[in-house]
Specification:
- This protein is α+β, with helices and mostly antiparallel strands.
- The protein has 26 helices and 19 strands.
- The chain has five domains: about 5-185, no CATH class; about 205-270, no CATH class; about 275-380 and about 690-705, Nucleotidyltransferase, domain 5; about 385-535, no CATH class; about 580-690, no CATH class.
- The strands form six sheets. It has a five-stranded antiparallel beta sheet, covered by helices on one side. Strands 14-13-10-16-17 form a five-stranded mixed beta sheet.
- The chain is globular.
- About 35% of the residues are buried.
Length: about 750
């Protein structure tokens, strides 16, 4: 590329000797170049004809030069590899015209050049790519030179690395092509240069993730970025102008898309490099609007947990909500991340589409992975089912989507005096059975959990309403506006029932409704609340399931109907009393040493004895591991301790997760000092037995699926970035975000 610089202004050349140079790339030019050629044709400087080389080469070879007049001088400046001749000067009326063989040969090879109807040239023959002609036109005006020079600068960005396209102005015959320099007068070119584009990009990976988390659109990002940068400039913290920053909607969009993809790939590679050996896969299907909001589709967040790590693999769309469709998507997602070989357990809701023996997603996933998996059904889902059936035993289910009693309360909420409520201890019928020991037990438990970090606000509201029910007002307590009241919100049933009962005197309840509410409230506060909040602990799961069954049996003294309904439903979900899962109770500190010794003894037995369990079978009829306890004899649950459910098969739990069992050979009093026990205990504590992470994935899709993009890949990238950003910056405190 020739160097462009200005010629000294004090020259003696006349206006007629001014020359304009235009470099026409014969082969590879964009539409703009031909537009300029059309302008030249209009100025009668050179004419172009179709199907011929758009320049003049040699008159002897009958490639005609189209000139405005015979007096115009044409200077041919051949510039291609192999040509060593000097610049040849010809006149159109000169009979002795030299023939440039090399150029003629090139012209013949380009004779098939074709111009399309859209003015874009099409290459129809093999043509040299790096050859172009420099044509010097005489008698060009200042306006023409300005146009040519303007076009040169505007087309700089379109030049390819192998092209040598030059557009400039020159004066005089002292044109030097051998030195690599071409001179331009000072007054050439536009009087004022175009406004320069920004060159500094302020959109880093963290900025993009923050904008995505805060749901900032590309257009809003322009307003926000300019306002912040201008504020920094005003207080002298930013030493550049706004014009020098790349802030426009299209550029921001491209940067965000690119950075999302790169960050998502980085997250994926990071977790793949960890070489995880034992993971639990979670999923939870949800019917949501598609990206175009034209129809509903089945979304399936797929998440894995391993020790303290929680990884969102993706949120694919399934064909339907069947077990086969879900199993296919989970399997494909695991293969994509390379985690198919290290899956050891699954955690999902206890719906038939997930846990049916033959066509459930869990059973089909075992077939796809060709391995036996440990089932860890969501314990929150299990206890939600119990509450649902207890509520429906008192208030029969209606055909509508919402509970009529809750809808009526929701409409009257704004008319209620929130300072005028009556607690449960003010009810004479409850005061008899709500003893001081029960009140103290409830207060101690609820107060302790209120000091912990709770994953959701409705958990906190549940605990606060429980305390208010027994006559204890928490610090800074206030009633919250009622939320969703449809049947699917099972936790909302407990909150609604407690609120309605507290404001019972301000509501026009039907006959018998107050008594029904009293029954459910007492069941919730004395039995259900404690079981719900202890359900997330994997170590305590087997022991507390057994204790919950015994508490339900004791509740028959107060309300036999509700206790029987709860027992019958909970009997179908004794997954954590299976031989392989019941053994993890050995790590529970509240279990006596005698019971732990019995557990160790039963793991060493060759055959299981008194425990009646159910085995799942695959399609070939081959028996897999025992998935859950299935014994209809309730006396085995009421009159036995946790060691009763442990068998020789229980040792498979340690083998599955590759946990050492040396501590089983020593006395339980020395386990706390044994390395194998410490490692195994730490692992079991992190074992995920609730599907809350998948529910958070569903909420993430609901919040972001239709906000940013209609591109499927970009949606996955956004979800990855937002989840990662929330984990790194869990709150809005300044010290957290620095």
């Amino acid at each position: 590329m020739a160097e462009i610089r200005s010629h000294p202004k004090d020259h003696s050349l006349t206006h007629e000797e001014n020359r304009a140079i235009i470099c026409l790339m014969c082969l590879q030019k964009r539409k703009k170049m031909y537009t300029v050629c059309d302008k030249l044709k209009e100025t009668h400087t050179i004419q172009l004809s179709n199907n011929v080389l758009p320049s003049a080469l040699c008159c002897n070879c009958k490639i005609k030069v189209h000139c405005a007049s015979k007096e115009n001088k044409i200077l041919l400046l051949p510039n291609y590899e192999g040509f060593t001749g000097e610049m040849i000067k010809t006149r159109s009326n000169d009979n002795s015209k030299p023939c440039l063989c090399k150029l003629c040969e090139l012209a013949r090879s380009t004779s098939s050049w074709n111009f399309g109807t859209n003015s874009r040239p099409r290459k129809e023959a093999g043509i040299l790519k790096e050859t172009h002609l420099q044509i010097l036109f005489c008698h060009t005006t200042q306006r023409q030179r300005t146009q040519l020079l303007y076009y040169y600068y505007s087309c700089e960005k379109y030049r390819e690395s192998n092209e040598n396209v030059e557009l400039m102005l020159s004066q005089g015959s002292s044109l030097s092509t051998s030195s690599g320099e071409i001179f331009i007068p000072y007054n050439a070119g536009p009087s004022q240069s175009n406004k320069s584009r920004g060159s500094y990009n302020i959109f880093s990976e963290r900025v993009v993730a923050t904008f995505d988390r805060c749901k900032i659109s590309d257009r809003d990002a322009v307003f926000l970025s300019i306002a912040i940068c201008q504020s920094l400039i005003d207080i002298n913290l930013l030493n550049v102008s706004i014009d020098s920053l790349i802030i426009n909607r299209s550029s921001i969009r491209r940067y965000r898309q690119s950075l999302r993809e790169s960050k998502s790939n980085e997250i994926k590679k990071h977790f793949q490099d960890l070489k995880l050996s034992s993971i639990v896969v979670h999923w939870d299907g949800k019917l949501l609007p598609n990206l175009l909001n034209t129809q509903t589709v089945h979304r399936l967040p797929v998440i894995i947990t391993s020790e303290d790590k929680e990884i969102l693999l993706g949120v694919p769309v399934t064909d339907d909500g069947t077990g086969l469709a879900q199993a296919n998507r989970v399997y494909e997602t695991l293969l994509d991340w390379g985690f198919d070989t290290c899956v050891k357990a699954i955690c999902c809701d206890t719906t038939p589409s997930n846990l049916a023996i033959r066509n459930g997603a869990a059973a089909l996933l075992e077939r796809f992975l060709d391995k036996d998996l440990l089932y860890l059904p969501c314990r929150h889902h299990i206890f939600e089912i119990v509450l649902r059936y207890v509520f429906e035993a008192v208030f029969p289910n209606t055909s509508g989507p919402n509970v009529p009693l809750f809808v009526s309360f929701q409409k009257k909420w704004n008319t209620l005096d929130q300072l005028n409520y009556k607690t449960g201890v003010n009810d004479p019928k409850l005061k008899i059975i709500l003893t001081d020991d029960k009140i103290n037990s409830i207060r101690t438990f609820a107060t302790e959990f209120l000091t912990m970090k709770l994953p959701r606000n409705d958990y906190k509201e549940f605990l606060e309403l429980t305390l208010v029910f027994i006559g204890i007002i928490p610090k800074n307590f206030c009633f919250r506006k009622p939320g969703a009241c449809h049947h699917a919100r099972w936790m909302a049933k407990a909150i609604y029932v407690l609120k309605i009962y507290l404001f019972r005197e301000q509501l026009s309840l039907k006959k018998g409704e107050e008594g029904k509410l009293r029954e459910i409230c007492f069941f919730i506060t004395t039995v259900y609340m404690k079981a719900w909040f202890l359900s997330t602990n994997g170590i305590k799961a087997p022991y507390h399931d057994l204790q919950f069954m015994k508490e339900l049996n004791n509740f028959k003294v107060i309300n036999s109907h509700l206790a029987t309904v709860a027992i019958n439903k909970f009997m179908n979900h004794l997954w954590y009393l299976s031989p392989e899962l019941s053994v993890i109770a050995i790590f529970y500190q509240d279990i006596s040493i005698e019971t732990k010794l019995k557990i160790v003894s039963r793991t060493k037995q060759e055959q299981q004895s008194s425990v009646d369990t159910i085995s799942e079978e695959d399609y070939t009829g081959e028996k897999c591991s025992v998935k859950r306890y299935q014994n209809k004899n309730i006396n085995d649950l009421l009159y036995n301790d946790i060691d009763f459910f442990v068998t020789a098969e229980s040792i498979k739990f340690f083998e599955r997760f590759e946990l050492r069992t040396e501590f089983l050979q020593i006395h339980p009093s020395k386990w706390a000092e044994d390395e194998s026990y410490i490692i195994a205990s730490k692992f079991v504590k992190t074992l995920s037995v609730v599907n809350d992470c998948a529910e958070r994935g569903v909420k993430l899709v609901q919040d972001f699926s239709r906000y940013y993009t209609k591109d499927k890949k970009q949606l996955q990238y956004v979800l990855q970035l937002v989840k990662d950003h929330r984990e790194r910056f869990p709150d809005s405190l300044k010290k957290t975000n620095m």
